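notes to self, project folder thing:

trying the whole complex as one job this time. last attempt i did each chain seperately and stitching them together was a nightmare. two parts in total, labels are on each line so i dont mix them up again. if this works i'll redo the older ones the same way
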Amino acid sequence: EVQLVESGGGLVQPGGSLRLSCAASGLTVSSNYMSWVRQAPGKGLEWVSVIFSDGTTYYADSVKGRITISRDSSKNTLYLQMNSLRPDDTAVYYCASLWGLSYFDDWGQGSLVTVSS
Amino acid sequence: ETVMTQSPATLSLSAGERATLSCRASQSVSSNLAWYQQKGGQAPRLLIYGASTRATGIPARFSGSGSGTEFTLTISSLQSEDSAVYYCQQYKNWPPWTFGQGTKVEIK
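result (full assembly):
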């Protein structure tokens, strides 16, 4: 059974930084396409970033230049480094596996990031 | 970017009724479409992929159809546990992978 467990969320001031982690079990992060999807309070789902098994990365235009996705094979963990945070980055951030660059088949429980002064 | 538009925003039906949810893509996505169910405070759950293939463990009352730009999710006989928000997502034209804004299904 696949389990994805996010951590690292919290309250941060505008302009601040935060790093989210997603610890995986039941799948190998480095061998899969792994992604982050976010959901602002009361809003829909927004894809944020993806990292391919070969290390290729893509980002949504809304976060490009401010967010970096990475992974640690030794810890089987996915990361999302978020810098220059803005109030509209406030959301629950989900870690998800992307089956064959298509649909998101396994999801974590989410980690809430609140950007506010 | 492929924009996904869902309708209606909210669907209020009684248990046992048939629910029909629509999803339209701004350009063809062939059959590269998935549906998700999200209950309050929970992560989304994959229901359908390939426009019409049920994911593992999904009850047969959920079915998907369509191709190109027009898609439908049907719940043949609503159960109380089907109260949720349903999202469509395309994976033909990426990046980005894009979702519809969601349809909320309420059970009267």
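what i see at first glance: DSSP finds no helices and eleven strands in chain A.
need to look closer tmrw
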